[in-house]
């Protein structure tokens, strides 16, 4: 098991393995995304209160759910960096920070567009909006810290500490703003009952969209990590060989 | 022979006396640098007095924002003085001595954080009723404001210490420190300011105090560990 674990940490091994994963991921994202978008944007009936605006939810909910997952992911990668000094974990942590910031920004933007239609305002100091905004700032802090430290090793460890501290803080921020002010509706439940407020014809396409966006996130993360691997390992023989092979093709 | 005995002597120093020595040293240094001591307090005063100039001198308007203004200013004052926490020690090398000492770094960092709070946080707490008066905070909210600041400002010092420890080795750290520390401080600000506002409306506030106390307990136990880890990374 430890052998497997050590192998997982090897950037080269990951690079070669992800080469085999990527085509499958591309295909599944294409399928899921086209089904999901077609279904959500054209087939799902209009909401009796929100009308066509409901369709924003099919982008907003997947994006927001990933943006919430990014910080814990970064903290886990940071912990692995600190405990096992695994190079790959830090590359993942570095790659996930900008993606997390983008997804948080996207969740805020799609939420604002939806809010303009339904709440009548682009921005409200509502608990979820505020906690997402603060999470956005936390991502910016991690990215800024990484770019400020010259030594890659020190930057890796410092960002790992900050990611862990931030991940402990995210639920505290979330609960404190929840008690502070709440306008956002609670998360809807998935129900099989066709007459429930959320019948399957509404949430099944949402589920498809969530999986599609998750696969997209995985692709983005893998591509970024692969770039990072090439960048950091540019002096190792296997990368030099790889580049030479690419040039010849 | 004498070296060996000296090492034995250093190891013999109990954690408690090392804690006290660090605390005493930081307080003495702070008291000898009057300007560093006064600057955060003056900053607090000036920032608070900017708000009436920027918003309105109207007592009704000011009293409705007074709790938040005092809290935000306390947060900024605490952040401004954070850089003193480790920078001078980093530059003259005494921080390395601290890291090399056989006593647990957790307690030494905690001592430095307590010293920082006594120098920068406590004066703000003591001064806050005066500023609250100038901002027309209703008198029934005074005690709540002082108490929330009393519980909240140590948390600001403890969280801020992590940020300074992470950035102490960097050349330009002023703004990056703010970007790191301010988002982490938001729960304290939210709960603290909310408690003061709730008292103004006659609402019960014991839950806010419980939450602030819980955050303080968490910060006391965990934050110095993170600061210590960060210092070991930065000083290398």
* Oligomeric grouping of the chains: heterodimer
Query: What is the terminal separation of chain B in angstroms?
Result: 30 Å
Structural class of chain B: mainly alpha
- Main sheet attributes: strand count, strand direction, barrel closure of chain B: none
Tell me about this structure.
The complex is a heterodimer of chains A (about 250) and B (about 240). With about 250 residues, chain A is mainly alpha-helical. Chain A has helices spanning about 1-10, 10-45, 55-85, 85-120, 125-150, 150-180, 200-230, 235-249. The radius of gyration of chain A is 21 Å and the shape is globular. Chain A starts with a helix and ends with a helix. The mean pLDDT of chain A is about 85. In chain B, helix 4 packs antiparallel against helix 9 (about 175-200) and helix 7 crosses helix 8.
Give a topology summary.
The complex is a heterodimer of chains A (249) and B (236).
Chain A: H1 2-8, H2 11-43, H3 57-84, H4 87-118, H5 127-148, H6 152-180, H7 200-232, H8 237-248
Chain B: H1 2-12, H2 15-32, H3 34-54, H4 59-82, H5 87-92, H6 94-100, H7 105-134, H8 142-167, H9 174-200, H10 206-234
Could you give a short description of this structure?
With 249 residues, chain A is mainly α.
